[in-house]
Write a structure and sequence with these properties.
By secondary structure, the chain is an alpha/beta fold. The protein contains 10 helices and 10 strands. A hairpin with a 2-residue loop joins strand 1 and strand 2.
């Protein structure tokens, strides 16, 4: 579904992404891991349109999407979440979900004056869908709670729910486990797996929790110093000498045997 070829993103003389190439297969849950500063989030930003790449290409289903703006990618079914949730804090959880679909009838003055019934019908449909999403994520008890009052993990679930309000094809999740307790992280993992298996979502997940990645993702891509270092199953990358060196600063072959 997604192919990245020789992608670069430079900030002056600093090469945050330095010739990264990778593929994300349709229907997969692909993990993206690496030490801090490896370029993972910058790569996400380039793919999702938040940053233009310095050079290189990104294609989605064979179409060149390099440098497209986030709202253009949104309409193509490419969505992303962030390390820090971006909720509308003064609105309820349900209202946050209902805000997501674009081109709503009530957004035009003409419809507000002359097509009020169409607005009511669409709002009823959005309300129904929002309730279904909240039920799916097992947070329906929070439907009338202001989003700003949620815990970190609940906000991550709400962000995932927002991707369900439109016809998402691929979702990039940036550190869904950051600041989330183990119980909620398991709930998020279950929701991701169900969306993948039941609704055909493709995911790419940045996460530092290797147990979470190992249970959820196949394949796993490892980045270091802006480059793709290794790709494989969780067991393969854990045994890869280059990955061990990137994380620990030395390979097993350099360790003295006790």
């Amino acid at each position: 579904m997604i192919r990245v070829d020789n992608l670069h993103r430079h900030f002056g003389g600093f090469r945050a992404v330095d010739g990264a190439s990778l593929e994300i297969a349709t229907g997969s849950i692909t993990g993206l891991v690496g030490p801090n500063g490896a370029g993972k989030s910058t790569l996400f930003n380039c793919i999702a349109g938040a940053l233009p790449p310095t050079s290189g290409t990104v294609t989605m289903d064979g179409e060149d999407i390099t440098g497209l703006a986030p709202h253009e990618l949104f309409h193509k079914g490419l969505l992303r979440t962030f390390q820090i949730a971006h909720e509308f804090s003064s609105m309820t959880c349900r209202e946050n979900l209902m805000m997501v679909p674009g081109a709503q009838s009530g957004e035009t003055l003409w419809n507000a004056w002359f097509r009020r019934s169409a607005i009511r019908d669409q709002e009823a449909e959005l309300l129904k869908k929002a309730n279904e999403v909240l039920d799916f994520l097992t947070i329906s008890h929070l439907k009338d709670e202001r989003a700003g009052n949620l815990s970190g993990g609940q906000k991550k679930l709400l962000e995932l729910g927002r991707t369900m309000m439109v016809d998402a094809k691929i979702v990039f999740l940036d550190e869904v486990g950051a600041g989330v307790n183990r119980t909620l992280l398991n709930t998020i993992g279950d929701a991701i797996r169900r969306l993948n298996e039941e609704r055909g979502y493709t995911f790419c997940v940045i996460e530092h929790d290797m147990d979470f990645i190992g249970k959820l993702c196949d394949p796993v891509i490892v980045m270091a110093e802006g480059k793709v270092l290794s790709t494989g199953t969780i067991d393969e990358i854990k045994a890869d000498e280059r990955v061990i060196e990137a994380y620990l600063g030395t390979g097993l072959k350099n360790k003295e045997t006790a």
